[in-house]
Amino acid sequence: MRVRTSADPAAGPTLAQIGENALVEMLTRGLPRDARVRVAAGDDCAVIGAPRDTRWQLLKTDAVIEGVHFLPDENPRRIGWKALCRAISDIAAMGGIPHYALITIAVGSGVKIARIRSLYAGLLRAADAFGVSIVGGETARSPGSLFLNIALTGSVERTRCVLRSGGRPGDVLLVTGRLGGSIKAKHLDFTPRLAEARWLVENFKPTAMMDLSDGLAADLPRLAAASRCGFTLDKERIPRTRGIAIERALTDGEDYELLIAVPANRLASLQAAWPQSFPRLPLTQIGSLNSQPSTLIPLRGFDHFT
Amino acid sequence: MRVRTSADPAAGPTLAQIGENALVEMLTRGLPRDARVRVAAGDDCAVIGAPRDTRWQLLKTDAVIEGVHFLPDENPRRIGWKALCRAISDIAAMGGIPHYALITIAVGSGVKIARIRSLYAGLLRAADAFGVSIVGGETARSPGSLFLNIALTGSVERTRCVLRSGGRPGDVLLVTGRLGGSIKAKHLDFTPRLAEARWLVENFKPTAMMDLSDGLAADLPRLAAASRCGFTLDKERIPRTRGIAIERALTDGEDYELLIAVPANRLASLQAAWPQSFPRLPLTQIGSLNSQPSTLIPLRGFDHFT
């Protein structure tokens, strides 16, 4: 099946009108794929492998753009760190470990070399911290903003791979850390929850998991919809960054925390074991999945185009 | 080893002053890598695999940018085709076959959906034509130009993998097709030499190979340097696009033809067999590698920043 093309590309709605969810859904519907594609669009990563392979491959691409994800005068080391850690966070959200990264940088020809070196220093610090090998770099000229794209591979044991779509009615929903207010600083310095996600898949096999990048109000409905479930959310319980109101905790985005679904009968042992391994990071029950997929959430998270 | 960062990012040379070759060399020198990285930066693709694996993995990332690689009013289908075919051409240049692609599109929020659909139609046509599965798409907002990044995986039998660095003194140099003048139209509609490259590695095992993207004058010295060889080039023999002068055939860039080194004793049988398989595509001997690595070429190819 092919994506149909309008005879007049000037016609029709704009991205701001349709929004990102609808766009991604439209573009990726019916893409031809080979038999080894387990998951394509719609999850944190693509998943490749034969049904009985012991390990599956994870593939992720992600970009940060000057004027959208960071300001022009931002420290380039922090931009490099953020760019690679965003992709690592998506590998973590599948229960996987990251392996190889390819970097595309597009910059104006007047950009100082020292700025690019500093960007790479941030990339390398993140690569070092999380066991990633940077195996290629493309440079291109940009007519305007600095553009930095990360392509990252990873892998996960087949039996430990966690999708967004595995949640079941009755599963308990939890989040790591505290939500909201990331724009102040955390969005440039966050730690992807790689160790926590690996610990979870090795010890408590979540039924569904994702990383929170667009805000709980946008991301939780995605996980629930992928799992064909509805959800209840206990707003009073949502762990908030100090000084952040509940609306912002729901919608600010760029939390890079984990949203996790586990069967209710594993909750008590998970809550007992977690603080032994991660004493400084809260793990909070915020709601549960149910069998009414039509649940609506009254607040919207971040949409990249509206 | 780390890339050192200047204390003052405003100091030092610009990209236009240092040029792309020096930049990529500087950024990728001394990157930490795991033991499965066979080739990182410096070839058409990164190559991953254990020394005795029967197949090695190939990884490539590449971007096309509005105002740099195409004009704002260009047909989006042709842009999509070109973007994916550029990456396929790099997989082909290693002797490999392409597998899975991830697409990053950054566009202004006012861009019409029909334009993005048309871009995807071009991507899908190329994916169909060369056996690629598109397994993920990220969308982001761009403050300016349309930016399209392709991350592509592939694989190659270990014994058939061809690097830039395997050329030896005495090897004959050949190119496919005709060079120069791509900007008129071909750069948007070219056919990556996937079938030709596979035929070559299956039947004549080149010692070195690459695809010509920045012009023979820039790319041949790269292949020779990677092989620690010098070269002689017979300018009279260089196959030129009709109406294109020799200088432009050397420097225009975006030819997306193959540059191939083969041992001299295989030349006669290669030249006899080629027209049987590819009657419409010339294969031309243009020179040879030698043992004087200091050879200088008088003309410069395309540098992305100067």
Description:
The structure is a homodimer of 306-residue chains. Chain A is built from nine helices and eleven strands. With 306 residues, chain A is α+β, with helices and mostly antiparallel strands. In chain A, helix 3 runs parallel beside helix 4 (113-130) and helix 3 runs parallel beside helix 6 (194-203). The longest helix of chain A has 18 residues, at 76-93.
What's this entry about, in short?
Two copies of one chain form a homodimer. Chain A has nine helices and eleven strands. Chain A is of the alpha+beta class.
Order of strands across the main sheet of chain A: 1-2-3-6-4-5
Q: What percent strand of chain A?
A: 15-25%
Structural class of chain A: alpha+beta
Helix content of chain A: 25-40%
Largest sheet of chain A: 6 strands, mixed
How far is the first residue's CA from the last residue's CA of chain A?
29 Å
Total strands of chain A: 11
Are there runs of chain A of 5+ residues with pLDDT below 50, and where? 1-10
Overall residue-averaged pLDDT value of chain A: 89
Write down the overall geometry of chain A: globular
User: Which oligomeric form is depicted?
Assistant: homodimer
Order of helices and strands of chain A: HHEEEHEHEEEHHEHEHEHE
Biggest interface, and residues per chain?
A: A-B, 86 and 86 residues
